[in-house]
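step: validate -> pass
step: tokenize input -> pass
step: predict -> running
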Amino acid sequence: MKARIKAAIFGAFLAVGSGYLCLTTPLGDGLVLASYDLPFKFRPFIFPKEVVIVYLDDASHEKLHQKYTEVWNRGYYTKLLTRLTADHAKAVVFDIIFSDAMDPATDQAFAKAMEANGNVVIGAELATVAYGPHVLTEIHLMPPAKIFAESAADLGLDGVFADQDLEIRSYLPTTKYAGQSSPTPMASEAWAGATLADPTLLTNKTLQDTTFWMNYYGPEMMTLPFVSLYQALADSDPNVPPGCFSNKVVFVGERLQTQLVGNRKDEYTSPYSWIPQNRFMSGVGIQATACLNLIRGDYLRRLDWGTERTIILLLGVLFGAGLVLFRPIPAVMLALFSAILIALLDYLCFVKLHYWFPCLIPILVQIPVALVWSVAAHSVQLSAQLRSLQNPQN
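step: predict -> pass
step: emit ->
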């Protein structure tokens, strides 16, 4: 009995320790990120309707005779804004940095179209400035040209921060930067577009200052409504009927198959990158998805650090000490059942409550460690019993 108690205590120590090691050190980063991605593989696609993307794509370059090596003619943006204003779009977000003034007449017309619409967001970016190897590095705003910054309803940061595998899993609605004149943090493109569409979001101070986890609805081209720029500009296109953009947040940005040598595309992996034809997701698709998460309120949440550690502790004790009480075959069956149960509970929390948990740590680390120890402990006990039978005098 004492040997079994010692084995249970040591098993609990092993299971808890291995779980904490994976949860709190880089050793388990891959399992944590894979735990986020896993439920998307089983959840049915979702088809949101609150957003439409207008792509500056290869077809638009061809149809509108726009060279890849030149900045887009802003006259097209003016015509697009006129269409979107007539269609009563809720907001228009340009995932584009209008950093320089160009043709004065064209720029002026574009600026007036922004003012006429009244709900246009244009892109801005942050630049990292280092003052020396041992001096603090600061983040500064690089705004668009003054004529556009003054005409737009708001600026939105276009930057997103990818994990090592180039996937955007978390998103920060607002950011503070060095030298800003306003105490209000700078809005991201998604936050700016979402708050124009639903101003009540501005009352949620916690949300705007807190990183949330992206809830992807499916492969970009299969689940997010979109049209090509040339279609949106056409006088008559059956795919873009009058009113197509009514009551929508419209994102305008680039999605290209053609790429100039030496340039990196504005694209990222996603939980659906395992599907061959959906390997990458465009930057504007990321921004549109984040905006949808905010408008719909279905962004994902991760359990707080205290709750996660408590769960890892309890599961470690349960499996580490519990599996030792069973013989190998029942222990294996119980381990498999427990792993499936944890996966199902995690999936239900993901789908119904929009919470996710690093479930692969208990499934692939704690339960296997506890199972191996259980089998090893029983083997040692069995060997001791055999020796006792062979040498009864001892």
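step: describe -> Residues 51-296 form one domain.
step: cleanup -> pass
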